[in-house]
Amino acid sequence: MSEKPITGEKRAFMTGNEVVAWAALAAGADIMYGYPITPQNEIMHYWTRQIPKYGRKFLQTEDELSAGFTTVGGVLAGLKAFTATAGPGNTLMQEPLSMAEMMRLPVVTVVQQRGGPSTATVIYSQQEVTLTTLGGNGEGMRVVYSPSNHQELFDYTIKSFNTAWKYRFPTFVLGDGYQAKMRESVTLYDPEEKGITFVTPERYVGKPGTPGVDRDPGHYRNTYNTEEELFEVLQQHFADFEKMAPEVIEYSQESVEDADVIIIGHGVVFRGVRDAVKELREEGLKVGYFRPITLRPFPAEQLKALATQGRKLLIAESAQGQLARLVKDAIYGATAEIVPMFRPGVGITTEQIVAKVKEVL
Amino acid sequence: MAKAVKICLAGEGGQGVQSVAEIIAAAANAEGREALYIPNFGVEQRGGVSIAYLQIDDKAIGAPKFDKADILVALSDRAVRRCKQYIDANTVYVYDTSIEGVEEDLPKEGEAKKVLAIPALEISKNELHPRVFNILIMGAVIGATKVIPVEAAKAAIEKKLGYKFEQNPKLRELNFSAIDRGIELME
């Protein structure tokens, strides 16, 4: 039962949902809780297909509220627990996930964004950025990774378990319907063979010994009696988040030094951004890119340093300005011009980005 | 630097365009190339036009979908109408000769690089077997694009359908003839 799901390196050709299931197996996740919703269903299909061999577990709940709360429960019991959802399911899940924020529970959630609002499309969007980065009531004390290809989907799903358990903030892998359903190559590996050490999960409840005698009592609260009490607790959360931020923030940038236009894109849209920059540079045009990999915490300082006078920041996203909001907040006070390229709920191709850059250059 | 080969396959649900794209993609991957295949999918489970987007390249592939296809195969009247947006002057356009009532919707002179009508449905029905219609189409795609060698395609078919061939070796022969015949159609 303790046999490793992956040994050595294995080049595979599969869907993103399958990649997530393999990554969770490789990361040593103990249990998945979930409720079906397109386009993430196959995560639980592949997970349940593989787990009998490796002694892991799955629980299908009656809805996403319950899936979120059972994931919270799994974590309280000291299990590496995760869930996956999309669209309206993501909306429902924010209630348990804000509880996870309040109680500092390392819940891992994979989101495969679909069109919104409401049922909208089952296909694709980047319209769950605001929801996933900021969550429900509260202050959005969470980590959100935005992968752009299957390799990153594998890498960051593995990483999210360690980030969550190390810093004790809910952690998200924000994919989308395209990444969920498309097939491309990926190299699966055993993380420990790559030198990745897993943070050992720890029980919150049911610890051995007598509370107050052998150990401190476990006192995990999501309810406070006074304003001051809550305020004080939150200050500690903010301080921890701020301390963590430089350690988890990830981004990439290229050809920005002399760029007249810097294209900003995240997730699957970044693929087109990267190719557009390559193509435009070959034509001798001064174009670069900045890509946030963590959307929360956001690489604000790094982007602000690029947002200088006379430059244009072209923001390409499959939403009506959700990434743009993060960008504007990050570069407040900078004088670069923002050029929107908003395509809510539809894909953005390399050709479209190239054409847009030529229009604004 | 060569650009990715962009292939768009469109037909009725059940015509097998998704399997064709998946097999070609898997074959290209097995050859060590980069491939990306994405189906269109929506809330309708049946009765829609099924489209497969496939790209093959020697380097990492960009956006999963594209504006214009290098080769577009349309296998029904609705597919012909639905896929007009993916055609430009560089597109090799392939459609089945049996499709009726689409004269107005086919690319006109100069709108596509080439327009080819192939009797795939008829050949599969009369010479082979209706079941291998999509494999014949796969042959046509490979013949038109040369994205993968025929051996790689056959190996990928073997991998996907090998368990059926075990039970009925004639099926293997039938599939392989279909792919050869599809390639021939493009010569």
TrEMBL record, chain A:
A Pfam family: POR_N
In what residue span(s) does the Pyruvate:ferredoxin oxidoreductase core domain sit?
Answer: 259-339
Its keywords, alphabetically, are:
Oxidoreductase
Q: Give a yes or no for keyword Oxidoreductase in this entry.
A: yes
Sequence ranges assigned to domain Pyruvate flavodoxin/ferredoxin oxidoreductase pyrimidine binding in this UniProt record? 23-247
Give the Gene Ontology MF terms in alphabetical order. oxidoreductase activity
Q: This protein's superkingdom?
A: Bacteria
Q: Does the keyword Heme apply?
A: no
> Per its record, how is this protein called by name?
2-oxoglutarate ferredoxin oxidoreductase, alpha subunit
Automatic annotation (TrEMBL), chain B:
The GO terms this record gives for MF are: oxidoreductase activity, acting on the aldehyde or oxo group of donors, iron-sulfur protein as acceptor
Task: Establish whether keyword Oxidoreductase is in the entry.
Answer: yes
List, alphabetically, the PANTHER family matched.
2-OXOGLUTARATE SYNTHASE SUBUNIT KORC
What organism does this protein naturally occur in? Desulforamulus aeronauticus DSM 10349
Task: Work out whether the entry's keyword set contains Oxidoreductase.
Answer: yes
The protein's UniProt keywords, in alphabetical order, are:
Oxidoreductase
Per the database record, which ranges form the Pyruvate/ketoisovalerate oxidoreductase catalytic domain? 13-184
Descriptive protein name = 2-oxoglutarate ferredoxin oxidoreductase subunit gamma
What InterPro entries does the database record attribute to this sequence?
A: 2-oxoglutarate_synth_KorC (IPR052554), PorC_KorC (IPR011894), Pyrv/ketoisovalerate_OxRed_cat (IPR019752), Pyrv_flavodox_OxRed_cen (IPR002869)
Report the Pfam families cross-referenced here.
Answer: POR
